[in-house]
Specification:
98 residues, mainly alpha, 4 helices
Length: 98
């Protein structure tokens, strides 16, 4: 029972932490132009992917690609970190049962 609660609380904390981390990163002055244009609203993949298809001459391509890479890392690694945390809690519970 305790480990189930610990697992659920940890998963929620990881999810909230990933969203908050991306929020804090996109508030940096480096990404001010993207905020003004509305290109860095959230972790929606539909808004992150088009950065890679901008023309090379576009002045905000580098910044947009950088933020998109950070966002994609957040989107891809959050589920794996949740899964890893769950396995860690299950392993601890299994070792303490013996």
């Amino acid at each position: 029972m305790f480990f189930d609660i610990l697992s659920y609380v940890g998963i929620i904390a990881i999810f909230v932490g990933a969203i908050y981390s991306f929020h804090r990163i996109r508030k940096q002055d480096e990404f001010r132009q993207l905020r003004e244009l509305g290109l860095c609203k959230n972790l929606n993949l539909i808004q992150l992917i088009p950065a890679f298809f901008r023309k090379k001459s576009d002045p905000i391509k580098g910044v947009h690609v950088k933020l998109s890479k950070i966002g994609l890392w957040h989107v891809l690694l959050t589920p794996f970190s949740m899964l890893g945390y769950t396995y860690l809690i299950e392993f601890i519970e299994f070792t303490l049962r013996k």
